[in-house]
Amino acid sequence: MSDGIILCDVAPRDGIQNEKIMLSSAQKLELIRRLAAAGMPWIEVASFASPKWVPQMADAEEVFRAASQIPGIRPIVLVLNDRGYDRAVAAGAHYIRLVVASTDTMNQKNANALPEVTMAAYRPIFERARRDNVELTGTIATSFGCPFEGAVDPDRVLRLAAQFIEAGAAEVDFADTVGMAVPPQIERILMRARKEFPGVRIGIHVHNTRNLGLANAYAAVRAGADVLDASTGGAGGCPFAPKATGNIPMDDLVFMLEGMGIKTGVDLDKLVATSRWFEELLEHPLPAMLPKAGPCWDSPPPLA
Ligand code: ZN
């Protein structure tokens, strides 16, 4: 297991949902199996979104059911409404991420509702989750900036986080959905969240649209994040956010963390091999640098 930081690979969900090539269920499962074999502890394996809007996730049931049989991983799924929750629970999901976007425009695009309406609709889902033995977490998309509305008031983001926690969320994740954050924003929100929500896991999900993804992840680690999302190879995009690029590459993130003396439990060679395989599968280059440059040490350099 990790040394204080939990890594969640979102390649099988965020990483592929915007890809033009439709992957088969078998290919998605091969990706998940390879990540599990590399020691990835948490994997976001699918989203139960409408196949009309996210066609790549049309086989979420099948992928989730098979992924949940893989030992050693926490298979996490993403849900946007009660229909998605029903499907996830029927498939046997125990770890479900609910998502709301911080701004009106982004949430309209994501969920066809205002954020307050989405949050109100989540209330009964929290009730049900208690009976269903399901752990719910709350992801706040566009926590650091919105492609349609620009700057986002951190108070608004923290209010949504507080509502998730009040309802019973075990974790809140602040997502830089389109890659607009700079490191001090990450630090500030984490410091406030740590103080305002003691005992709750805090996660950070960043995209590399403006090349600050790893700097933001570094800031998150230094400010005490519990969970870091990334996607192997740096694959990804967002069907609802123009110009958004992939998540930070998990390969490069693991290299950085191990170099910082943080034990991730991930086998970097296996991860890099998975990344190269994944790149061939998608038939286009992925942004991760480590598979190109190669790991440069067997054990991390000593820190002074
Ligand atoms: Zn994302």
Layout of SSEs?
Layout: E1 6-9, H1 11-15, H2 25-37, E2 42-47, H3 60-67, E3 74-79, H4 82-90, E4 95-101, H5 104-111, H6 115-132, E5 135-141, H7 154-167, E6 171-176, H8 183-196, E7 201-206, H9 213-222, E8 227-230, H10 250-259, H11 268-282, H12 290-293
Parallel strand pairs: 1-2, 1-8, 2-3, 3-4, 4-5, 5-6, 6-7, 7-8
Helix pairs in contact: 2-3, 2-11, 6-7, 7-8, 8-9, 10-11
Bound molecules: zinc ion.
The site of zinc ion (ZN) has 6 residues, from loops.
Characterize this entry briefly.
With 304 residues, the protein is an alpha/beta fold. It is built from twelve helices and eight strands.
Can you characterise this structure?
The protein has a single domain (6-293), classed as TIM Barrel (Alpha-Beta Barrel). An eight-stranded parallel barrel has the order 1-2-3-4-5-6-7-8, surrounded by eight helices. With 304 residues, it is α/β, with parallel strands linked by helices. It has helices spanning 11-15, 25-37, 60-67, 82-90, 104-111, 115-132, 154-167, 183-196, 213-222, 250-259, 268-282, 290-293; strands at residues 6-9, 42-47, 74-79, 95-101, 135-141, 171-176, 201-206, 227-230. The chain is globular and about 50 Å long. Zinc ion binds at residues 14, 175, 177, 205, 207, 247.
